[in-house]
Amino acid sequence: MIILGTISLFFIGGLFLYLGAEGLVRGTVSLALRVGFKPLIAGVVFFTLGAASPELFVSFITAANSDFDLALGNIVGSVIMNIGLILGLSALIKPLKLNAHLIKFYIFILILVSILIIALFSDKELSSIDGIILLTVFTFYTFLLVKFSKDEQREVVKEYIVKYSSLRKKNVLSIIFLIGSIVLLAIGSNIFIFSIKIIGKSFLIPDYILSLTAIAFICSIPELVIAIVSAIRGQGDISIGNVFSTSIFNLLFVLGLISIFYPIKMIGITNIDLYVLMGMPVLFLPLARTGYYVNRFEGLLLLIAYLIYLYYLFFLR
Asked: Is this model's pTM higher than 0.85 or not?
């Protein structure tokens, strides 16, 4: 009965995280549109803040409590899951056609950022200085992202107009969305973390496995929903762009910000997890370059790669 109640809390916390992230996406994108940002820039820049908010809240709270496996594993697991599971499933549902020049930019940036993360963790810790380095790189990345967004192709711009223009609301409504979302995220993250710790202890599952899988999945639900809906609507650029931009945001901004306040130690998370983190965008690169079209077979390859990683976690670790 106690376990059943805990599992219920797990899903309630996850639901609050999803609703909070969804509201934050709507609120931030809406305000960005109201103050004059174009839908493309609002989508690629401000969407990521909302979509990555579950990782931000969960990792910040767990790092504050020195649960470094949960804090780091959540972010690393989310990035691996975003590419392997989410893009793999999206391509299986409907092949992803790529038009955006930004996609190539995202892929190369994510590979470089992954290499940087591996280098910074060479001493098994992400220090405050490392956090400042990550935030500095994030600032430069955002500048380049806005610059390149202005030269994007018409069909890509049209995709983002169709996707995000409807989110333009009155300022008061946008602010209500923001405040309500932050409250939901704060409550949901605490409920979620409380329940996941009890589940882990009850089933003797190590924190690093929980963080790389269950926690990462719940925190990645906003990206999953957006990616699948966009794929069904034929908006491959949005499906892939949001996954990659959120992954970069998590690694640079979320990890950078948290490590400034709470230096993050590598305990259960290993170099192999970081190599898989780097390997996923490396694997995606040749798939995306085959006519800039990710077909169902290539989506299946991404999914198989992710399942192999899960097998390693649960049976070979």
From this structure: yes
